[in-house]
Specification:
By secondary structure, this protein is of the alpha+beta class. The protein is 16% helix and 38% strand. The strands form three sheets. The chain has an eight-stranded antiparallel sheet, with helices on one face. It has a five-stranded antiparallel sheet with strand order 4-18-5-16-17, covered by helices on one side.
Length: 278
């Protein structure tokens, strides 16, 4: 009886996702953006099969008014990893999210990572997405996500001082690049909308990346490209500014932490943070 109930529940979830995918864009929701300060807003959305409600949190940032900062333990004086909240408190950041996956030494980033004259990892791997900020010329967008099957890392390094390479989720201009798979996890992602605004995204409920991409593209957030930052219990987003404090983390990851029990952010070596322009 229990197995039949579980099968019915899974079938219902699959039908919900299928309806969503076949009818994109149609995840109809009243979008309410809470303005935390000028140029920074947060919104929360429901999603199919949500473990929590609301389930997806999006922080939208105008890069003309806010600076992005790549913070790494390798470049800092920290001896140990910190949570996004602890990085924010230490460095007086307004918000922070994972900078990407890291190696088993719990320090080095997986993929190419550079900020100004400091190269954290010089290896350009097969990951197809690079987030670039800190432009070297005044007429360039302050933040831009690049697809490495459309341009080279060398061309990006000539125009931007900071580069973060990660797994691509969505290719510009809004193309889901994942195939369906059984693996699923909580997700922290970095996105860009059609006006060039930065999107910090976290979803606690576990989805395959194909399904999550379809959900994100269905949301009224004008998402045109995105990259994977982290999954499972290490995924996190922290915001504290003007009486608003949001501290979120993931939990589920297939083959690693198959539960929704994690309630605390885990220490991580590298984050992307924001500060208000002076």
């Amino acid at each position: 009886m229990i197995k039949r109930f579980e099968m019915a529940a899974k079938l219902s979830i699959s039908i919900l996702l299928l309806l969503l995918i076949c009818s994109r864009p149609c995840l109809s929701q009243d979008t309410v953006w809470q303005e935390i300060d000028k140029g920074i807003e947060v919104s929360r959305f429901k999603s199919p099969a949500a473990l929590v409600n609301p389930d997806i949190t999006v922080l939208r940032i105008n890069p003309a008014l806010w600076d992005m900062k790549l913070i790494t333990r390798a470049q800092s004086e920290e001896r140990f990893n910190l949570t996004a909240k602890e990085w924010c408190e230490k460095l007086n950041l307004t918000a922070a999210i994972n900078a990407g996956m890291f190696h088993q030494d719990y320090v080095r980033h997986v993929g190419y990572l550079k900020t100004r004259d400091f190269v954290h990892d010089s290896l350009v791997n097969q990951y197809k997405s690079v987030a670039a900020f800190d432009p070297l010329m005044p007429d360039l967008p302050r933040f831009r996500m690049f697809d490495l099957d459309e341009c080279s890392v060398d061309s990006i390094t000539r125009t931007y001082a900071t580069h973060v390479q990660n797994l691509r989720l969505i290719k510009r201009p809004g193309e889901n690049r994942w195939q369906q798979q059984e693996k699923k996890w909580s997700e922290a992602a970095l996105g860009e909308d059609s006006t060039g605004r930065i999107l910090f995204i976290i979803c606690r409920s576990p989805y395959s990346m194909y399904d999550l991409n379809e959900i994100l593209l269905s949301l009224p957030i004008d998402l045109i490209c995105a990259q994977h930052l982290e999954g499972g219990p290490e995924a996190q987003l922290y915001i504290r500014h003007n009486k608003t404090e949001i501290d979120l983390c993931g939990s589920f990851e297939t083959g690693y932490a198959e539960n929704d029990n994690n309630l605390q952010a885990w220490p991580i070596p590298n984050i992307i943070g924001i500060t208000k322009k002076k």
